[in-house]
Amino acid sequence: MDEIAQKLIERYHQNALSSEENQEFQRRINSDADFAKEVQWHGLALEAIRLEGEKELRRRLTIKGKELDAKAPNRSTTFPWQGGLLLIVVLALGLWFIYPNRTTNEPTSAPAPAKKSLPAPPPSPKSVEPAPVSPPVQTKPASIDGKKIFAAYFEPYRDASLEPGVRGSVEKISPQEHFRHLYWDGKYAAALSAFDSLNTFAQQDNTNLFLKANCLLHANQGKAAAELLEGIMQSGHSRFVEVVPWYLALSHLQTGQVEKAKRILDEIVEKKGGRMENAAQLNKALK
Description:
Helix content: 55-70%
Structural class: mainly alpha
CATH superfamily of the domain at 146-285: Tetratricopeptide repeat domain
CATH topology of the domain at 146-285: Serine Threonine Protein Phosphatase 5, Tetratricopeptide repeat
Order of helices and strands: HHHHHHHHHHHHH
Distance between the termini: 55 Å
Strand content: under 5%
CATH architecture of the domain at 146-285: Alpha Horseshoe
CATH class of the domain at 146-285: Mainly Alpha
Number of strands: 0
Low-confidence stretches: 75-86, 96-118
Largest sheet: none
Mean pLDDT: 78
Oligomer: single chain
């Protein structure tokens, strides 16, 4: 790999290609299979470095959180039962004064009543058979509206690495840069149209496919989005591999496949994957 090619690959992943460099980059990637493969492997290496940095950051935040918890002051516990006990004692004393013990004023034994003939007991009533009890009506649990829950949790993916580094007119930037600019600006419908103008290599790039899946979810095309996301998960080569399951679960919710969504959310929580806290909260809302 010559020095110029290496420089083009590095500037491509930094979103810093000039218009002349971008033309040379497109020429090489469409004509040189080794160059295209090196572009892909370079991107995977950068993603591995980013993920390792995120793990280290989570580890440090966990340690810091434990230190802060250890320094938190202990709060004295209150005993709300003391007030209730005092109230019971006051009420008992009040009742004692209002209703004094009258056993001393009553005779110890009541005089025996005079014997009188007792009237004949009334005839015993006829046995009445109890009315049959109707079985309780079983009400069906309310169905979960996956689309409403999807709308409450879905936001198209964004992070700083997607922010365009070069701005310019459509004529001066590549079709791929134009597609990513539209996505970053929140013009998801236009980004979907721009995706169709990409070359074959760019349309197979997992980053572009992940962004397209988000555009499809925004356009309520959950089934098509799920197909793209499942393909990315199977390939395993994506800088967004940790968050793909979260968006796949959302796509199943949008299409009403709640049980599929639950299984994926359970796996995210169990494996402590990306968006684990969101997955746990959403899973709780579905139960």
